[in-house]
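Consider the following input, taken from an annotated entry for Cyclic nucleotide-binding/CBS domain-containing protein (Amphritea pacifica).
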Amino acid sequence: MQAEQIEIAGFLKQYPPFNALPEPVIDEIACQVEISYFRADSDVFQFGDEIHDLCVIRSGAVEIYRRNGDLYNRLSEGELFGQLSLLMSQRVRLPARTIEDSLIYFIPETLFSSLCERFDSFAYFVEMDDNRLRQAVSSKQESSDLMVSKVTALISRTPVWLDTSTTIRQAAQKMTEEGVSSLLIMQPQRGDDGSAEYTLAGIITDRDLRTRVVATGLDLESPVTQVMTQDPVTLDDDAYAFEAMLTMLRYNLHHLPVLHDDQPVGVLATSDIVRYESQSSLYMVSNIMRQPSVEELARLQPQISACFVRMVSEDANSHMIGSAMSVIGRTFKQRLLELAEEKLGPPPLPYCFLALGSMARDEQLVVTDQDNALILDNSYRPELHGEYFKQLATFVSDGLNRCGYTYCTGKIMATNPEWRKTRQQWEATFADWMDNPLPEALLNCSIFFDLDGVWGKTEWASQLNTFISLRAQRSPKFLASLARNALNRTPPLGFFKNFVMEQDGQHRNSINLKRRGTAPLADLVRVHALAVGSRVQNSFERLDDVVDADILPPGKAADLRDALEFISMVRIRHQAADIEAGREPSNNVKPEKLTDFDRRNLKEAFQVLSNSQRFLKFRYPFSGR
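Applying the prediction step yields:
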């Protein structure tokens, strides 16, 4: 090798995904690299250009743009671009332009394809959208058992940190010395015994240094607290690896601090998951975010079913499957909202797009419709802003319908002007429903009180959840009315514990496991959760709060959890079997098609539901006044 090629190889082996390749392979790459110099403010690629090389930034910096001209990302030394265009169509979808004098290595397409085929770690890295973490659900192979692995198994080193007195320069130097892409910032304080203690105040990453310091020209002697992410999302060290992936995916994180007793034990990075999860991954989320149109999003619908079936075959539990499918559903909404704003222009005022029902609870499956709504800024005026949000809601709802999330027959969609309200109007509406719990209001509560912000000012959704929780907990009359309403859907058991089945229609002689099983269970868990002031959405997580509040007889919460899991899994396996057989999946099962084991345990689960509904009458007595 020539001296120049030795220098190229030495550079590449410092950065992912090349640092995971054997040294002879890096030498092979170095011998085929072409080098180009670009002055500042030069186009590397324009939209629609043919592309036949993977690009690695040797020095300088490059900005990546969306088709509409909006900034998508800023990249610096050691980072890649062009991989998505190579993988998809050999046409540039995200234009690239230098922001300073830059040297760029070009790796030929033929070599790029060969590396993808020969090395899984390389393929996984380049197939991951830089702004979205791929969702993965593990196979049962021991080398990649993410479903049963604790998150600590993914952490590769102890956390690197400095305190809040640190300057930006000191933080950058520390990250360079330690060879890390993130740094925790700790707040010093005195313990009760006078000793020094530290609590997590924030986190700063390589990306923060690029976008908040270099790009803005900020003084390097400024305090690091000025550019760090304050109060970052964290995860306890007893969580499972799949929970870490879902958390990083949901909040679009590349670094996730892991805590034990509120003290950091490590920082989980995207690359840690990629390294650990080497056998089986679901790429739905990254695929969704790469699609340039509704038409191409709609083509992904078969892949949703395939992901669902795969998780079932890998023995994922209902919480894992519901969480994964809900994240996929949210991502469809997020991409559609991106496309809507590209088409309609920036929104005239802030808003939050809500997911409702099973998606908000992380309990969505493949048989589902769409339930959504809009929270609008209090400055909203229908005559000024109404047409924009009508068009935005229509674009998203029509797109969801094309992607397999059918229109809600009850019109619980943002296309219905009744469900486009300002923040003040939503609070007034929820207060009225709780103060005047009429049948229609109670029906709405069973839908709208499971809400989650998926786009825009998502903190408004959290504030509404807090409003609901505080007000409901102080309203015994409302809780009693909601409890009575939760009794409307009864389990399908006769007097002698025989199944009571549908008597007419398309699903005659079958049991609807959602309407007669999981839905009434979710209803009664919601009542208990509101009563104890829980602010979480998922039924299993709500049960944890109910257990902590100690309002159920001993063992009853565990019975409820087991009943919900068993009925959910029978429903899930039935839908997966329908998909594999080429049938339209449904919530209806015929008892004679079930095994003796499933029939026997379904009866027991339904009996738990029945007993729990009777307890609702006792726990929340209804006065009728």
